[in-house]
Amino acid sequence: MSDEITPSAGWRTDRTTDRTTDRTTDRLNRQTDIARAAALIADPSRARILKALCDGRALPAGALAAEAGVGAPTVSAHLAKLVEGGLITAVRDGRHRYYRLRGPEVSTALEALALIAPPLPVTSLRESSVTNALYRSRTCYDHLAGRLGVALMRALLDGGVLTGHDGSHRPEHAVRDRPSAYGHDTVYRLTDTGRGDLLAFGVDPDRLPKRRPAIRYCVDWSERRHHLAGALGAAITARLFGLGWLRYGVSLRVVRLTEGGAEGLRQAFGLIAEG
Question: Is the model's pTM score more than 0.90?
Fold first, then answer.
């Protein structure tokens, strides 16, 4: 597998693994500057830029300017501050420059903030449509979330692809699990039957990237249930896009299931998607 970063790829440590480890060790040994990170996120335009990047894609400044509703000079200034603050990185693809989150921990932090942030006022039909679409189906960094994401997790459990839990989040029994974060209280495992089902679907569990756990889960912030994360969650989501079963929707991060995708998921995993 190539180590090069491409605009459509998800976050990789690859050549920066040692630097990532150094940053983690440094954070453990020193006080963290929460105020600085909060100040970077606090600007409404920068917050919209960061939210737009939460699906793991690298996007050009023009797309981020449109999402934030600002002009080119303004978005350049915001991007420079976010790069300097370590929340995003800039990558080049030929003559073009793209931006992506530094890593999935930034997306996790933003999702956690969404739990305590007051809702933005809905002032247009489009804003209402985007909000409803985010609840229905969205990406959580590089894997599927929202009602569609938890429905896929439920189908994988019901079909015997995964085992270990029923996919529910019970706050009263949670030890370390919190909404909008990676889960730790449950261990999901791939079954022998599931291995065959995934191979038939076009995902080889033995060829998943080794730099991240194969099977993880997040506690979905809107559904308060588990959705599949980790290398397997990313691989399944990438396959759904590759088959044309998933497409990006009315806004960045929003995805929609096509008619072919609804039928394909029914046949592959027994998932009955909502209309």
Answer: no
